[in-house]
């Protein structure tokens, strides 16, 4: 070998040596895959100080995307409705706002069906991101509803995330979805997971909104790698207790977001996990302008004073779903008076404002549209006393979970034992001061939602419908607004029509 060739030879040996060491080091210490997940959900009302924090969310998402190229933002739905503005545009403004934030994917929950499946399909075509519902079938065409995906693959920086989202079958009865069927979620997850793995998914995230008991097993068997749950049915402690697994991300409160980092050697493991309050983050000015524009549009539509509160009023979620409530009494009394029936019944879940009003403050149309955002109509039924009792039992069957079925009544009173087993909680019922007669037929004013079996009120679904009072029966929100206009000063109260025998009169 010539002397002049030695430097080239030595350099080649050095390169080979370094390459060999690099291979050896990579075998002993393989490069880890890293992923950051930003997760949030349940933001239906842009006017609400807790659930309308989209401008803060934008800041969080942008911060995390700047820190890591492998940041996936998964929006967990629960936001198409209900709200005052959604009652006008069926949730289009929520999709428009999310388009500005650019989620990688959105999971579908029952609230996305607030305006039924066809409206959800329209929203999916407005979205610049995929909407996933893995176990929902449109029975009219025997496939997923138009515009929805059964799963999705998203690739960033050589990491491919697969996303699955499943619903509980109760969405059909709660939202009266006559054209929808639900595949057993466990079956759907297995099928979609196999398909996503074959297509190259490095990580599979499951989004769900009901605490299915088999999720931990699927995580342990690596059928899925990460689970993300939001479920407003359960309180925070119960929700956390039913989802104990290091790779389960639990959104325990509205108005928060999860930022979680994962690393993979042989399996994905969470290395950090924070649930952040969105209100603690700076507001993104550009997105805030978008929110202000929508709020201004809503104000132009509804910011008209129609009355004045004469007493303090609270419509917090816990109160309207667990005890007699002044505002609920006012609503159901208005329905009974309008329909001229023996009794009236409405579910606590139809009241959604979650607000407090001080005596002396004005009542606007926006207040009532916020409190009663669903487009439910007043209907009249003939019901037996036995059906009334059964309906009350159905409404109280999920009392411990603050379910929306909690029954508010007019023209009658009832006592119940919340500690008793479901469907054995009613202790007494009186109508116009007399014990209820199980065989007698009473006239009942209620919502078309409950009359069709919504929120599990099957007893009413089997009741005989009376002739309608008008060709176009009024929406309950419009009826309440007109009642307020007629009397202007409003002073609803509790009068002992609902008695919790354990808590002494609540």
Automatic annotation (TrEMBL):
The keyword Ubl conjugation does not apply. One of its GO terms (molecular function) is hydrolase activity. GO terms for biological process: nucleotide catabolic process. Keywords: Hydrolase, Nucleotide-binding, Signal. Transmembrane segments: none annotated. Residues 314-461 form the 5'-Nucleotidase C-terminal domain. Residues 1-22 form the signal peptide. It comes from the Bacteria. Belongs to the 5'-nucleotidase family. This is Bifunctional metallophosphatase/5'-nucleotidase. It comes from Alteromonas portus. The lineage of its organism: Bacteria, Pseudomonadati, Pseudomonadota, Gammaproteobacteria, Alteromonadales.
